Amino acid sequence: MYDIIGDIHGEDRKLEGLLKHLGYVPAGRGYRAPLGRQAVFLGDLVDRGPGQARVLEIVRAMVDEGQALCIMGNHEFNAIGYVTEDPDSPGEFLRPNRGDSEKSRKNRKQHGAFIAQIGEGSAAHAAWVAWFRQLPPFMDLGGIRVAHASWDDAAVSTLSDAGWMPGKRLDDAVLLATHRKGSALEQARKRLTSGVELALPDGRYIEDKEGHRHYEVRLANWRDWASALHEVALVPAGQEAQILGLALPEGFDRTPISGAPIFIGHHWFKGPPRIESGKLACLDWSAAAGGPLVAYRWDGEDLLSNDKLAWEAQAGPARKG
To answer: What sequence ranges are listed for the domain Calcineurin-like phosphoesterase (predicted)?
Structure first.
């Protein structure tokens, strides 16, 4: 049975509080799972929070000891690109961070807390980036399926065919291909780790909580009941005007989910934790922005329910929905 845990983003105290609430016991550098259970981390372990080194230490120890599984989030993917030179742009990296462009400034700011806590260019920095390469972009565990931002069978097949799957390290050839604009591998990687996005018209952008501008809006493509853009556009409060007058993209897929339940993170939900449907739960409830760190206790059910959620709002007693 699995305890699936959403985006941690360096919130080590929330992580330790949640694990203890779920019955995990401190063991060495990590935690030991209750008998018959295993944690599943949905990625985005790093960036933002004050305890990133401790979060990484806990998660890696648990993975090494067989107490947990972990997939890659877009922040781990970005951390790899941040230190990998771009062969087409000498002196720059796959995730630009050396120039004075808006993109480079944004990337440095977004990754700054991780760099400060780990030490840019240090042995620890190199070791953690190497470990990130071991994280798969998805896992199909039989009874459940997990991806960081969205599940897509075609994207899973594309990355698997290229050799990036559970048990296989992200090698340089695939890494470069996932950064090649418009390539099938780039689109597949984005679908799983960043989800479905709609490009906004010129002059419009979404401004996130840190002041970064995003020229695309995230879409909850799993909401098969939706008939209008505002029902699937994941727009921060106060940014709703940026999607006024826009329609759902042509051919937007709203096929009902079948098969094993899906767990994702990535989307910074707000308010009381709840599942999206009996077949999908997003477990990212903005832990690094004052929200709770959320888990789902899966016991083999084919339909998910809200009463299986548990969360840690602060370094104190955990709450359960």
So the answer is: 4-84
